[in-house]
Amino acid sequence: MLRTGKQPHPHVCSPRSIWEYDGQTAQIDYLIVTRKHRFVLECRNLYGNIEINNTRDFIRTMPAGRGFKKRAFIHPSHKITVI
Asked: Which of 2, 46, 52, 67 is surrounded by the fewest CB atoms within 10 Å?
C-alpha cells in the first residue's frame, strides 16, 4: 500500500490488487481509498483513435498498411459485476 497526501485529503493507493469473493476473482489495477470515496481504476495500453458510439461501444481506429483498421471492444463498465 502506498500512503500519500496530507490533510485535508489523505488517501491510500493500492496498485495491482487481486480480490476473491464467493469463488470469483477480480484483478484491480489501482484501488484508491479516501475518507469519503473509493475509486477502482482500470488501466489499458491502447493506441489509435478511440470513439464511443451512442450504444456505448468502444471503437478503436488504428493505422494498417496504407489504410486504417477498426476494432470494437467491450465498454469497461460492462465487465463489472455488482455484488
From this structure: 67
Buried b (16+ CB within 10 A) or exposed e, 27-52: eeeebbeeeeeeeeeeeeeeeeeeee
Q: If DSSP states are collapsed to H, E and C, what string results for 42-60?
A: CCCCCCCEEEECCCCCEEE
pTM for this entry:
0.44
Q: Give the residue numbers spanning the domain of 50.
A: 45-75
Section 52-70 average pLDDT? 87
Residue 64 within any structural domain of the chain: yes
Dihedrals φ, ψ of 35, to 5°? -60, -35
The C-alpha cell that represents 59 in the structure block? 471503437
